[in-house]
Amino acid sequence: MRQPLMLLCAAAVAALLAAPPAAALFIHEFDKGDEVLVKVNELTSIRTQIPYSYYSLPFCKPDNLVDSAPTIWQLLHGDRQQMSPFLFEMRVPKKCQIVCKVLVGEKEAKETMEKIEDEYRVNMALDNLPLTIAIRRIDNGAFVVYQRGYHIGVVGQYTGEEHKRYFVNNHLSFWVKYERDIDTGASRIVAFEIRPFSVKHQFEARWNGVNTRLSTCDPSAHKFILSSDYPQEIKVGEEIIFTYDVNFEESEIKWASRWDAYLSTTDDQARWFSIVNSLVTLLALSVAMAMTMLRSLHREIFRYSQLETQNEAQVETGWKLVHGDVFRPPSNPGLLCVYAGSGVQLFGTLLITIAFAALGFFSPLNSAGLRNAMLLSCALMGPFAGYTSSRLYKMFKNGSEWKHITMTTAILFPGFAFVIFVVLNSLLRNEKSSATVPSSTICALVLLWSGIAPPLVFVGGYFGFKKPAIEHPVEINKTPRKIPKQAWYIRPVFTILVGSIFPFATVFIELFFGLIFVWYHRFYHGFGFLLVTLVLLVIACAEISTAVCYYQLRSGNYKWWWRSFLTSGCSAVYLFLYATFFFFAKLSIVKPVSVMLYFGYMLVVSYAFFLLTGTIGFFSCFFFIRFIYSQRAFG
């Protein structure tokens, strides 16, 4: 019976890891000739990480420019969708459609050349599908990689010239693939691709708006001609004609699996290897603990219990020697309570968000939806944070300062993140980035947050303080015991630096893919891997913190409270160091503002990781120590 059950669980886990998130909640069907809306997103670059509005450059604008209603995260991140000037009619191909003619001034030319130099890309979406360029890999021609968006232009240099030339992609050839319903004849969009060209258009006779006949792009010819021998260069006073094609192609791709091509990558093998490597590491750590710590602990508890039953005199040694001091309050207990409450809130937020994402509740395109859910989960976990901090504080000090502790819990991490955000937002404002959040919006969001999050934390703190204080299984001595001299391998600095490596090692590979996803603007998939990684992280933090605490108590050192938090929590130091290595080894960021953006956001992530892992280690030690000191020998 056990073997089929294990096989069933293994199959369920494999399906969870392999299944991509749901692409969308609603199916949009189009009849022939129906209008399909093309939306433009921000301009992005991996070299600057500073987004800009699509219409900040001299591109064609629609007659009625309307922004889509942004979500909270899109409002904070500056990612706003806008209507594009491109008009599609379902299954109605178009050739060489003129959008507009733009006269390039000195300012426009300078900004466009700067964006081309920084490798900015244009992002669009059609029926919630992102615009991509299909690229076949050199080492494996059968494998296609989809690159999001297209470059604004390219930098060139003719032979014998010293100065660079900048060419803009002013002709866009769109390819829309669709699935056709056999019964209704309706079409569903399953792919949205593009092939950009730079063409110095020439027109015959005089300019007649969108009806002008172009000699460089003749759709009426027997064979469609697109002359790109002379690319369109960016020059002051130059007139640029923007054109586009729309090609529709029936595809065998099913609408339910239209995201498979975008999310199909070769990194799944590396992620499986990461999980197996973490499992082997944790298994080795568990075996070591079982053979040394747990074995000796079980023997000592049994021996002490037998001695008490026989009313024999006990000679206290090891961890039992400090039973009268092990629950003595730590230094600065209020801060520890605040850290623990914040860590509980972050852990609940992460667990809920990742679990829902792994079950397919979020579209890969709609990363803002995932982040909105994270913000909502964080607010809903507020009562648990307040309950935890006030409950612990009452155990340490049965006073009225629980209100101060609770409110500090409500503003500690959000306040730190907010300060970083305000500083970075001011830098983005100086760069005139589309990610800049207006001051009025910031004030409105702060008022909205202050009316929701702190009250929820305070409610949890109130109920936590009303509960009876947690009773210790042993009495605390009035006089603290002197701590003997510690061996070098059990001292705090060594144990914390060595012990914190294990939690970081479990998330190392997944951290790499997360950084690629965020800073390379890639598609992130496989939230099942992330969920399994979170479980492994919890196990790693619990095991290493418990082991360090046990050997610390055996050496006669009863000050375990803060060390239990720091042993796993300081893995955030390794995370930040790896983020620094990733910056210099993988990124090509060129602007000082972009450098500050990267390290500012990674500092927030590292601080959150510190609170998360530290809380896991702290509570693991807390319950472990309460367990061993509540045995019969201490009854």
From TrEMBL:
<keyword id="KW-0732">Signal</keyword>
<comment type="similarity">
    <text>Belongs to the nonaspanin (TM9SF) (TC 9.A.2) family.</text>
</comment>
<keyword id="KW-0472">Membrane</keyword>
<dbReference type="Pfam" id="PF02990">
    <property type="entry name" value="EMP70"/>
</dbReference>
<feature type="transmembrane region" description="Helical">
    <location>
        <begin position="565"/>
        <end position="585"/>
    </location>
</feature>
<keyword id="KW-0812">Transmembrane</keyword>
<feature type="transmembrane region" description="Helical">
    <location>
        <begin position="405"/>
        <end position="424"/>
    </location>
</feature>
<feature type="transmembrane region" description="Helical">
    <location>
        <begin position="336"/>
        <end position="362"/>
    </location>
</feature>
<keyword id="KW-1133">Transmembrane helix</keyword>
<feature type="transmembrane region" description="Helical">
    <location>
        <begin position="374"/>
        <end position="393"/>
    </location>
</feature>
<dbReference type="GO" id="GO:0000139">
    <property type="term" value="C:Golgi membrane"/>
</dbReference>
<feature type="signal peptide">
    <location>
        <begin position="1"/>
        <end position="24"/>
    </location>
</feature>
<keyword id="KW-0967">Endosome</keyword>
<feature type="transmembrane region" description="Helical">
    <location>
        <begin position="488"/>
        <end position="521"/>
    </location>
</feature>
<dbReference type="InterPro" id="IPR004240">
    <property type="entry name" value="EMP70"/>
</dbReference>
<feature type="transmembrane region" description="Helical">
    <location>
        <begin position="272"/>
        <end position="294"/>
    </location>
</feature>
<feature type="transmembrane region" description="Helical">
    <location>
        <begin position="605"/>
        <end position="629"/>
    </location>
</feature>
<feature type="transmembrane region" description="Helical">
    <location>
        <begin position="444"/>
        <end position="465"/>
    </location>
</feature>
<feature type="transmembrane region" description="Helical">
    <location>
        <begin position="527"/>
        <end position="553"/>
    </location>
</feature>
<dbReference type="GO" id="GO:0072657">
    <property type="term" value="P:protein localization to membrane"/>
</dbReference>
<protein>
    <recommendedName>
        <fullName>Transmembrane 9 superfamily member</fullName>
    </recommendedName>
</protein>
<dbReference type="GO" id="GO:0010008">
    <property type="term" value="C:endosome membrane"/>
</dbReference>
